[in-house]
Amino acid sequence: MNYSLAVSATDGTCNTAPSQPVVLSTVPCKLQNVSAQLNCDTNSAVVSWELSDNVTRHTVQAIGSDGHRIDCTSSDHSCTLAGMRCGQSYNITVTALDGACDNSNTNLMLTSAPCAPSNVQTSLHCNISGGVVSVSWVQANGAEFYMAVAVSNDGHSYSCNTTTASCDLQELQCGQIYNVSVYSLAHGCGGVKSTMSQVQTAPCPPQNVSAIVQCDSESVLVSWNPAVDASLFIVELESESTGAISSCNSTNTQCSITHLPCGERFNLSVVALRGGCQSQPSSDLSIASAPCIPQGVNGTVDCVTNSAWVSWDVVNAAESYTVLAVGEDGHNSTCSSSNSTCNVPDLGCGRSFTFHVTASNAACVSPPSSSFQLETAPCALSSIVVVAECHSSVIMVQWQKARSGNSLYFATAEDQDLSILSCNSSASSCNLTNVHCDKEYTIIVAASANKCSSLRSPPYKIRTGTIINIMPFPSRIDV
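^ that's the sequence the OP posted. Answer follows.
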């Protein structure tokens, strides 16, 4: 405030005229509404106050906790403290000056922006699913908490927060290069960024894995799409029944596993490696090796239909079975089945066949089983010739032998006294002995093979000493 002072004398009765007035200013009042606003980006502070009478200028002095000093002067209502050091608590004194009394001070405290974290380190945990990177740093002055941020080349970002000097970035994408920064954070400041550290995550699992079972070489060729961030690939083949594992490795996009046992199903997977880091396995692929050779193969002939029932022991990894019957005359017949029996049709009569069984799946056919032979039922005879001579005790019976097979033929003669004569042969004739002259014999011929018998020929009557030529039958024979 300003005061005008004048002096007059008095003797108790009279007063003199006042002297010339003198103006006197009081000490400036204490500054009001003093505040400081921190600019975190520039680490400077704007100090402001309300203007008061008779104050010609103001000085601002800031002293940090490390002794650092900054000053500014203003004749207005604010001034800027520039060049503050990070992470410091500053004691700020504002002084109002009027040219006479320069001791009106106001004090306040202000903390500068936090320092940036230093020595940022990254460590990739290759053995943890999802891609985890541990980030560590040296703690910074003035920081109340920290945020680590990883940004990939394609823009994906992940972060973690902590009040300590490390944290883990979770579930980073595979096969990416990330730029990692750490921010120091304090209330009132958005964050001060460290220098960047770069980390590359584990390779991605191989894609489009395919497998071709090579039946002849008992191997499987595995291939996959190339991966630009992998230096080695490992293929593992695990048996579903035994758990045994076979493997191969490659620096390109395919490799082969050999010596596959027959009749096994396998789960196949591929992993990619780079340095000490391994990808997650590719999606499981199920494959089967070639079926084993069928065992326990046997068969029986159906005498009525001239077909054959063939059976065998079921083998692992087989999806279907095929029976092939090969005839001596070149006639072949087949049947297929998904279980352990099959009926081979249309074999015809009087034929010998060699049978074997093969097992197959989507990839392979097994070698043929051990073979066995069967004969179908004999064909009916189309004609016979009977020769009986006088003064001979022998009747020769002849027939047309089937072109294939090993049928046994039986000739039987019965006279009026019901006496029986017989002979048999696998050839085309046999002799009935002990024949009496001037007897009437009824003769029939039948064939038998593989537990099957043909229908008997119709009976024929002959008197000894008479020659009977070819006699047709109504039935037809396939030979």
